[in-house]
Protein: Pirin family protein
Amino acid sequence: MSNLDLKPTPSLCGGNTRTGPVRDVQPGRQVPLGESTVVRRLLPNLGRRMVGAWCFVDHYGPDDIADEPGMQVPPHPHMGLQTVSWLREGEVLHRDSLGSLQTVRPRELGLMTSGRAIAHSEESPRDHAPMLHGAQLWVALPGEHRNAAPDFEHHTDLPVITGGGGLSATVILGELAGAASPGTTYSPLVGADLTLAAGTDTRLPLDPDFEYAALTISGESEVDGVRLAPGALLYLGCGRAELPLRADADSSLMLLGGEPFEEDIVMWWNFVGRSHEDIATARADWMSGARFGEVRGYDGDRLAAPDLPPGPLKPRGRVR
Structure:
């Protein structure tokens, strides 16, 4: 998925700054995406730009698209990151410059590794479900892998953790409580979809070396005593061996975590680099038609890159 902001703000982030356990609620902001979709952007935000290697989170829906085209995101480029597509309702048709053509459905993992360069589009199929609800996330690739060959993976069989207390957890990426997703990762991290039944009162084991955040997908729940409304992100910091979870009614969350990212990065538009020159070269290559390849079969024009900001982009630490 693309950042369609025509004047994207550079995100200067990275650096291994650890915090102890905290409870920092970050509200999302409304951002238009494509022709008919509005998302809640939870990362990056004013207070936090990364959680482990997770550097971008959009939550969208639930939207009634029965009489609408739904998601329509034209071909656009990515560099230096992975995209993670996760649906609760609806379908998204993925095309990319590798020739991939895949419909991603609820609780299936669509994982695209851009590496040195890839382009893709995302759209609701012509005959689509009436509702669209999900999240799009990016993972920054560490320096040694940021020029890896591009790839696309589609996984339909993901591990599910169940137990007492009303919690069910699908491991989307990385590892949680001894269960590992089949998706390829390049740094220690976890992404999980948590379903809490009414009356849930339990504790989820965590890795104390990871920093974590939780975002509400539906309903209201309590995470370490903090009540979260839909569309909010709670940053939890590091140093936790477990996470208390409660819910009075059915609800769902996403849990994101990972070792604090040690490198300084620059994230601008749909690129993750290490310097202004990285970003400027990627933009020029996209505009000239070089390097990123062609997305075939999309009915429409590809996105043009916005103008670079007037000053140089500088990599800095991950926390203000």
Residues 11-258 form a domain with the Jelly Rolls fold (CATH 2.60.120.10). Residues 11-16 have pLDDT under 50 and may be disordered. The chain is about 5% helix and 50% strand.
